[in-house]
Amino acid sequence: MKRPAPTSTGARPKVLVVDDDPDQLYLLSTHLQGADCDVVAVSSGELAVASLQDHVFDLAVIDLRLPGIGGNDVAVEVRSSHPLCRVVFTSVLDADTYPPAHGGLPKPFTRQQVLNLLTHLKPGGQA
């Protein structure tokens, strides 16, 4: 399995995962941890925004359909506070309707699709 490229500091990539479904949150986190990523997993948009003050992320995987602060609003906060962080949306919605981002991960997803996010995304650019 290809490992994700180290960050500019040489550390493991730090990934924010935001999903209100506990099973999806666990699955995404497990796949990313298995790919040698340092994962911060949160179950709400509010917790995601709060975590932006404590961590510097390389990638954010955000569910679009979150109660409270929605996924698109979380992405706005991520982009504002972490301009080099790549944003990927995940959702049960049709991927053609996702807002602009570095990538999309339609549900249900496979382990390989999650790993592809790490190997096929270029830092700071579109997929």
TrEMBL record:
<keyword id="KW-0597">Phosphoprotein</keyword>
<dbReference type="InterPro" id="IPR001789">
    <property type="entry name" value="Sig_transdc_resp-reg_receiver"/>
</dbReference>
<feature type="domain" description="Response regulatory">
    <location>
        <begin position="14"/>
        <end position="122"/>
    </location>
</feature>
<dbReference type="InterPro" id="IPR050595">
    <property type="entry name" value="Bact_response_regulator"/>
</dbReference>
<protein>
    <submittedName>
        <fullName>Response regulator receiver domain-containing protein</fullName>
    </submittedName>
</protein>
<feature type="modified residue" description="4-aspartylphosphate">
    <location>
        <position position="63"/>
    </location>
</feature>
<dbReference type="Pfam" id="PF00072">
    <property type="entry name" value="Response_reg"/>
</dbReference>
<dbReference type="GO" id="GO:0000160">
    <property type="term" value="P:phosphorelay signal transduction system"/>
</dbReference>
<dbReference type="InterPro" id="IPR011006">
    <property type="entry name" value="CheY-like_superfamily"/>
</dbReference>
